[in-house]
Amino acid sequence: MLKKRLFLILFLLLPLIGQAELTVEVVGGAAQQVPIAIVPFAAPAGNATAQQDNVTNVIGADLRLSGLFRVLETRGVVNQPHALTEVKYSDWASIQTQALTIGTVESLPGNRLKISFRLLDVLKQNQLLAMEFNITPAQQRATAHRIADMIYEKLIGEKGAFATRITYVNKENGRYSLQVADADGFNAQTVVSSKEPLISPSWSPDGTKLAYVSFEKKKPVIFVQSLVSGQRIVLANFKGNNSAPAWSPDGTKLAIVLTYSANSQIYVINADGTGLQQVSFSNGIDTEPEWSPDGSSIYFTSNRGGGPQIYRMPAAGGDAKRVTFEGSYNVSPHLSADGKLLTFIKQSPAGFKVAVQDLATGQVQTLSDTTQDESPSFAPNGRMILYATNVGGRGSLATVSVDGRVKQRLKDSGGDVREPSWGSAMN
Amino acid sequence: MKKSLLVSVLLAATLAACSNTAVKEKPAAPVVDSSKSSQTTQPSAASRDDGASTAPAVQTEMSVNPLKDPNNILSKRSIFFDFDKDEIKAEYRSLVEAHAKYLVANPNAKVIFQGNADSRGSREYNLSLGQRRSVAVKKAVNVLGAQDKQIETVSYGEEKAKECKEEACYQQDRRVEIVYENE
Asked: CA B175 to CA B183: how far, in whole Å?
């Protein structure tokens, strides 16, 4: 039954794939899914919108892929309403939907579009949301993601993360390219490409810049690049390796890792490359710094006690406290936006897996069913974790919900994808 | 001469002990009698060269570049490590010693130690681990007299790692490559 539905979902998704760099498949679902019907929005005559930019499809795909919604087939219903006065609630009660979305896309003068949508409660027969957007045609997908976020928030009771962006590195035909895409993998844009490896992209808190590590100078050097202008600066090119950049929450500083003193140690540097200060001092490896959301602490990976474990220290340096205790290999710490959850990669007998630790209770849960996982990061709403894994000998991206129930794969279309990081909301 | 022969024999004996344990760890590699000379060409067979083949390296014959001579231990350029470890195993002692001797005898020679890790775990941690491995080799040749200015250490982390499914493959990626300048 589940497999059949999976196949159906995949089949329905096929027309959406188009030229997208990534596609998504659902490999699991929540126990309780909210049934929702989305009537295809009335589109302006003569305005042939590309299928993958079709607002209705994007909203439906977002909600479906969250794992929390069951998006119902609407074609069997004869009366297809677009305005509130056209809605016959009994039609929708008969297909057992709980929520109904209707809307229109209209052409405006000056090559603009007006998108209107309403979210209706079928049982109570009332309106939950109504909104209009005046946009350029290029903003259709982004607007559809925003609508999906609004529906998600109204029906689930917490913020959505559809109108957000992700970054990752794609290796294809011997070239590495750093890409930025919508959270669903569409709209991928290349930020920089190189014949040498690119790793560890990190979003500035305002989402306008990426820090990353490039081997183009035959050794790891940290760059900061503006996504607005495309201009970049060398943030750190000191003797030895320069790697693992992480922005402070206020965006003024970055924690980085240098092997200046032969051993990987953590330093803090201003965002313009000035004011370098060493903050970790150990005889082991200290790497993968990650700021706490309040900026007071830095979490990091260290093998000072033997194998790699996650530690926390004051951001200005000082005594480090060990944070992870289960297992002999825990790496790649990332925090949820509220600072309550830590995700990391944990080596278990079954392989390297995404785990999450409640920082208040210390309780650890292994989430993924894949075995070569790397580079986990939280969605801005803290609900999902994006990570890299290996499927069929190639790197690909996957997400898992923090309760482990909803698992998705973001399938690539030929490249070897790695080093993902989930960014903030779209601008 | 007699003394150096004795050293060779001792070395060979030590290596024999080492390569036995090595064979246990690497089931893919055939058992080789280490008292025989260096005709085997297994990629990880560095440890099986005996002391005798190091002798020409020290004498540096004019006609053959010892770094390229397949019969010379100096042509062996890989040191392999255990998972998440940066200790140089005993079986690579003669290899490290031979390169240290070469650097001491050729003060203008320059070498890069390139550290690598297998593809498992985090890329950043593996970058640091590869660096630790290359520094471990540097420290070992420093102790034997090679100078800092002759040595550069770099790490590729797991960026050059192969696509692996089992330990025999991962093991090949956990290594320091010894590369001389202008090679």
From this structure: 19
